[in-house]
Design goal:
About 40% of the residues lie in helices and about 10% in strands. By secondary structure, the chain is an alpha/beta fold. Helix 1 packs parallel to helix 2. The relative contact order is 0.16.
């Protein structure tokens, strides 16, 4: 099961509308939680794997970024899920990428990761033997400062 949805907002706590913030928090945080909740019965039956997309922004506070706060929530959620499902055979992995060349950003830029870089990291986590649980992958471009 892979909860990989989310969107951002303009930085600054006086920017964007409260409605836009609500939509972002509901999508980025509650959407992931609902996805996990819906999948738990099947995950237990198949000893599956929970994958959550966090972000470097979920480990490094970005000034004025409510998006960053939602990704901090996903970081905590991943560990809570892992602890809750401990002993069930279900594995939990948080993938926390830095800048990736995707439509998330308005402008293409040099030095970003490619989607295939993230896919390889995910394949690493899911291809481990059943007794190995890769809990977090923090992946950034070599040129990314923060």
């Amino acid at each position: 099961m892979f909860a990989n949805a989310g969107f951002g907002a303009t930085r600054g706590f006086l920017e964007e509308s409260p409605e836009q913030w609500r939509s972002m928090v509901l999508t980025n945080v509650l959407g992931a939680a609902y996805t996990v909740r819906a999948a738990i019965p099947a995950l237990k039956q198949r000893r599956g794997h929970v994958l959550l997309t966090g972000s470097v922004a979920g480990r490094k506070a970005l000034p004025g970024s409510l998006y960053s706060s939602t990704k901090w929530a996903i970081t905590g959620m991943a560990e809570s899920i892992r602890a809750d499902l401990n002993g069930t055979g279900i594995r939990t992995t948080l993938i926390s990428p830095g800048a990736v060349q995707t439509p998330f950003f308005d402008d293409p830029a040099e030095g970003r990761l490619e989607p295939e870089d993230i896919a390889r990291a995910i394949l690493f986590a899911v291809s481990q033997p059943p007794h190995v649980d890769v809990n977090e992958i923090f992946i950034r471009p070599t040129s990314q400062e923060g």
